[in-house]
């Protein structure tokens, strides 16, 4: 498939691009700075996220949003999704997938208590988590073809790609050691597998893996 990755040079985006290439997809990095794309196999679309429109995205089968708002501008997690929803309303044949946050996952079976509202949630992460939760709520109410993937609570950039993961939906889940853990590499694998599997259309899902 033709996959565009917004933020393809970031931590999540770079591993998503590498995994998509590994699985044989045609990958375009949607980035603000062309010179940061180092892999010659990746096509490049130079654009600010807020300048993306129907014409710039209509050629893709899937667009994955791996944008991360800078510190102090966490509200951009919400405003960026507002903008992208408006764009994708005119692109019914293009699937929108998003690297989400763990904070909106529920900690109770009744789905009343999101993780980010619990007393022990780190205060430093609260602005990001709250805005990403609001963005997820916007997606749920939208009519676009979306999929949102929340990582585990411990999202480990240094962790190994084990090639295995366990899937869940709206609740925090744990691995065989009782840990809510996933490496960035296994997260990327689960996301790119979902491009093909299409098991979570207009749904959120999550995944955990074992420590490599």
Automatic annotation (TrEMBL):
Q: Where does the signal peptide begin and end?
A: none
Any one Gene Ontology molecular-function term assigned to this protein's record? oxidoreductase activity, acting on the CH-NH group of donors, NAD or NADP as acceptor
Q: Which InterPro entries match?
A: NAD(P)-bd_dom, NAD(P)-bd_dom_sf, Polyketide_Oxido-like
Domain of life of the organism in this record? Answer: Bacteria
* Pfam families in alphabetical order: NAD_binding_10
Q: Where is the NAD(P)-binding domain?
A: 7-196
CDD domains linked to this entry: BVR-B_like_SDR_a
- The entry's protein name is NAD(P)H-binding protein
The organism of origin for this protein:
Oxalobacter vibrioformis
Q: What is the lineage of its organism?
A: Bacteria, Pseudomonadati, Pseudomonadota, Betaproteobacteria, Burkholderiales
């Amino acid at each position: 498939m033709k996959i565009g990755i917004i933020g393809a040079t970031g931590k999540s985006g770079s591993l998503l691009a590498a995994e998509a290439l590994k699985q044989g997809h045609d990958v375009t990095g949607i980035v603000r700075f062309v010179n940061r794309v180092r892999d010659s196999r990746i096509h490049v679309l130079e654009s600010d996220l807020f300048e993306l429109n129907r014409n710039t995205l209509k050629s893709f089968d899937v667009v994955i949003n791996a944008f991360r708002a800078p510190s102090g501008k966490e509200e951009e997690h919400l405003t960026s999704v507002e903008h992208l929803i408006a764009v994708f309303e005119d692109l019914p044949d293009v699937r929108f997938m998003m690297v989400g946050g763990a904070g909106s996952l529920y900690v109770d079976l009744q789905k009343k208590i999101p993780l980010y509202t619990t007393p022990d949630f780190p205060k430093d992460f609260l602005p990001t988590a709250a805005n990403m939760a609001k963005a997820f709520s916007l997606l749920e109410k939208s009519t676009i073809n979306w999929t949102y993937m929340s990582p585990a609570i411990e999202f480990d950039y240094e962790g190994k790609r084990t090639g295995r993961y366990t899937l869940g939906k709206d609740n925090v889940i744990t691995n065989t050691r009782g840990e809510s853990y996933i490496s960035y590499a296994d997260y990327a694998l689960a996301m790119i597998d979902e491009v093909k599997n299409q098991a979570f259309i207009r749904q959120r899902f999550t995944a955990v893996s074992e420590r490599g």
